[in-house]
Every structure is written in structure tokens, then in C-alpha cells.
Design a protein that fits this description.
disordered N terminus, 450 residues, NADH-Q_oxidoreductase, FAD/NAD(P)-binding domain, 24 strands, alpha/beta, 2 domains, transmembrane, 6-stranded mixed beta sheet, transmembrane helix, 30% helix, disordered C terminus, oxidoreductase, membrane
Length: 450
């Protein structure tokens, strides 16, 4: 079934993606004489910087993924469409999306592509089976099941040697996501799960953070990077740098050491927090427009974030290649708002801003409770003051008053009492690698910037 969509009337703006770039672009057009159609395959706006807190039982998925229709309910010039974009016709100026067998063709006068990015395994996609990434709600819920089920499996294992792999966790990637996840795993084992088990002490769990380069959080400068590593090690996290991952399987991770010797880390639970890949829409737009792409798949855009030869098409956020800064929430927010400002100016017969310029508002990363680092201009903070700043900034950018209130309550439970409000795992046997067969089945089916 094909459903044509759109008609003559106000200037038609189609926004692809309801992440930071798409949402802030849409909201910036609320008073413009336009009709906005926001298309996304998900019905919610995902606050990705807090996904690791869903995975470790601090927050529920609803608190960081409010419904996009609820967010935009008062903006009357917006229609939200559920669907995955399958094609963009730059000549006819239409976007085709599909969901549950229904195809929708949406015409546009201006197009903002903010489809974001996913997990990259640097050409080793087979690793995904055993080391899930953390880019979606589904990823976070799967990781929550894997993490808490690992402790349950450890309780069932009477042999100490056989139990050890269940109590070993490897996090791949020394960026903000990897550091935050490793810190929370350490706090979970040493504080939140205390006295929960009888056959073992959860504090004996081993958390290893593996990074291919020479340090963790290196973008924050050597002083803060060193502070972050020391904080992790004080928590009990084993930090291995200059150790690129060369193999992942059901029972562990293989790394190449700085001396060129291959080493093995035995662990049942592996978490991939390294690398991003641009949405497949980037390839589609590159073929249609001839725009160049870099190794990460980002599209080379003009200074005003438009595709070469197509001034009506804006590419923002993770998908664009413009300058040295990318992959950050603030880049998505600012470039989305820039695209909206450019459209408003054109409709008013004005040139508008000539070029997008990123305004660096600083970098924040939390290591664990009461420990964080912050780089804001020349200012460098660490410890409790940076942690309080991190809390305030994330609350500010979290969408929705109700979400902010519930997040504060859950944070209070976790940070003041060491409790975890969201420890439910809904997938029985989730600790087993996907490659394992169920004998009972007949057929054997199987870093936020401020």
C-alpha cells in the first residue's frame, strides 16, 4: 500500500531523525510559516548519554526516551510519522519511508537529515554477537540482562574457577561511554550488590577497560585523562591501554599488547563502547548527490551544512563532515538549530547566517559517584565539583519536566543509598551467548558535551 503525503500550502520541511539534531531543528521552527514532518523509525527521543545508566540499573528506559509526540504535542505545525526512510529522491524532492508494510511518500521544500549514527566495530561486525554496543534502548536493555544474569549464573556455579568468567566484565573503548560504563560496573559490584549473594562476594568481580590508544578520555588533555585513569583504578577497574582488540568470542577477548604479543582476557560479558558508524542514509545521499564521504561515512557538506548542489538539503549532527568536531550532542543541537535558522531567513527573504560555526561549551565525563572531569574553555575541574556540574548539565538537556523529576529521584536512590531501582531482566537465559542453542527447542532456534 502506498500513501501519498503532503500538499500545496505552507513551506514543507521534512526532518529525518528525532535525536538531538532533528528535535532541536524541529523546535526551532515552531514559529516559522512552515509545515514540518518529522520522520523516525522510533517513536521516542533518545537521550543517548544516559544509556549506560539504563544498562546498569540506575534508570528505566522511559526516563531517557520520552515519546516524541508528547514532546511536540503543543507545536501545531508538526506532524510525526513513524517509519524507516528507505529512499530520498533529490530531483523530485520526496522522502520514502516504510513501516509494517506501509509505504509513505512525503514531499519537501526543505529537508533536514539528522539520522545520527550507530555502533562501529571497525570492520569486525562478527564481534557484535558477543560484545553488544550501546547505541539504542534495545542495546541497553540487552546489556542489563547480560550484566545481572552474569551474577545469577555465578551464584549457580559451585566451582570457583568456573565462576570467575561470569564475574569478569570487559569494556572496549576508553571514551566517555566506556569510562562511564566501567565505573558503574565497578560501583555495582562493590556497593549496590553487597550481601546479595551467598556463594561469592560481588566485590570480587573483575572489570577491565580496554583502549587501543595510549590513554582514556585523551580529548580532555593529559592531566584530566590521567585523573580519570587513577579514579578508575581506585574503583578497582583494570585499565589496559595500547591494547587494540583483535578477537571476541563467547568466552573472552583477545588483545594485542604494546609489545606485539597477543593476550587473552577471559570474560563472559563484553561491552563494546568504541567507534561510531554513520546512518546508512549517508551512503544513499552520497550516491544521489555525489558528495564525498570520509572513512567514518560522514558527508562533506558546504559551510552552511547543505549538500553540494542542493541548497534545500541540510545534513546535520553525526552525519556531516565539517571541521574537526563531530559525534557530540552539542554539534547535533547547534547544527540543527542552524539549519532551522537558515530556513527561516530564506522564507523572510534574508540571507541568514552564512556558515555554521560550532560554539564549544566544554566537555564533561563522569567516572563514578562523586567523580567526574570537566574541561570548559581554560577551566579544568575534577572530582566532586565536576560531578555536580555533570549532573546539572545532563538534567538541563533531558527533555520533559516529569523525566527530570524521576531521574533526580532515581539518582538519589543510587548515589545516596547505593541501590539500583531497575534491576529487572526480562530475557530468561540472557547471559548465554546468542550462538548457544536451546536444547528444549525442537528446531534449535536460536561523552557528553555540555
Amino acid at each position: 500500500m502506498e500513501t501519498p503525503h503532503g500538499a500545496t500550502g505552507p513551506h514543507r520541511v521534512v526532518v529525518i531523525g528525532s535525536g538531538f539534531g532533528g528535535l532541536f531543528a524541529t523546535k526551532a521552527l515552531r514559529r516559522a510559516p512552515v509545515q514540518v514532518t518529522l520522520i523516525d523509525r522510533n517513536s521516542y527521543h533518545l537521550f543517548q548519554p544516559l544509556l549506560y545508566q539504563v544498562a546498569t540499573g540506575i534508570l528505566s528506559q522511559g526516563e531517557i526516551a520520552p515519546p516524541i509526540r508528547e514532546i511536540l504535542r503543543a507545536q501545531r505545525n508538526v506532524q510525526v510519522l513513524l517509519g524507516e526512510v528507505t529512499s530520498i529522491d533529490l530531483g523530485a524532492r520526496t522522502v520514502t519511508s516504510q513501516v509494517l508494510g506501509t509505504t509513505t511518500v512525503t514531499p519537501y521544500d526543505s529537508l533536514i537529515v539528522a539520522a545520527g549514527s550507530g555502533q562501529s566495530y571497525f570492520g569486525n561486525d562478527r564481534f557484535a554477537e558477543f560484545a553488544p554496543g550501546m547505541k539504542s534502548v534495545e542495546d541497553a536493555l540487552r546489556l542489563r540482562s547480560l550484566i545481572f544474569a552474569a551474577y545469577e549464573m555465578a551464584e549457580l556455579e559451585p566451582d570457583d574457577r568456573a565462576r570467575a568468567p561470569w564475574l569478569s566484565f570487559v569494556v572496549v573503548g576508553g571514551g566517555p561511554t566506556g569510562v562511564e560504563m566501567a565505573g558503574q560496573l565497578a560501583e555495582l559490584s562493590r556497593h549496590s550488590l553487597k550481601n546479595n549473594f551467598r556463594r561469592f562476594d560481588p566485590a570480587d568481580a573483575k572489570v577491565v577497560l580496554v583502549e587501543a590508544t595510549g590513554g582514556v578520555l585523551t580529548g580532555y588533555g593529559p592531566r584530566l585523562s590521567g585523573r580519570a585513569r587513577r579514579d578508575l583504578e581506585r574503583l578497582g577497574v583494570e585499565v589496559r591501554v595500547d591494547a587494540p582488540v583483535v578477537g571476541v568470542d563467547a568466552d573472552g577477548v583477545d588483545v594485542m599488547g604494546p609489545d606485539g604479543v597477543r593476550g587473552r582476557i577471559t570474560a563472559k560479558t563484553k561491552i563494546w563502547a568504541a567507534g561510531v558508524s554513520v546512518s546508512p542514509l549517508g551512503d544513499l545521499l552520497a550516491r544521489a548527490s555525489g558528495a564525498e564521504r570520509n572513512r567514518a561515512g560522514q558527508l562533506a557538506v558546504l559551510p552552511d551544512c547543505t549538500l553540494p548542489g542542493h541548497p534545500e538539503v541540510f545534513v546535520v549532527g553525526d552525519m556531516m563532515r565539517l571541521g574537526e568536531v563531530s559525534g557530540l550532542a552539542q554539534v547535533a543541537i547547534q547544527s540543527g538549530e542552524f539549519a532551522a535558522a537558515k530556513i527561516r531567513a530564506r522564507l523572510a527573504g534574508k540571507p541568514g547566517p552564512a556558515a555554521y560555526r560550532y560554539r564549544d561549551k566544554g566537555m564533561l565525563a563522569t567516572i563514578a559517584r562523586f567523580r567526574a572531569i570537566a574541561a570548559i574553555g581554560p577551566l579544568r575541574l575534577s572530582g566532586f565539583s565536576a560531578w555536580v556540574l555533570w549532573l546539572a548539565v545532563h538534567l538541563f538537556y533531558l527533555v520533559g519536566f516529569k523525566n527530570r523529576v524521576t531521574v533526580v529521584l532515581h539518582w538519589a536512590v543510587t548515589f545516596l543509598t547505593n541501590g539500583r531501582s531497575e534491576r529487572t531482566s526480562t530475557a530468561p537465559g540472557a547471559a548465554r551467548p546468542p550462538s548457544w542453542k536451546d536444547p528444549d527447542t525442537a528446531a534449535g532456534e536460536t561523552r557528553f558535551r555540555a
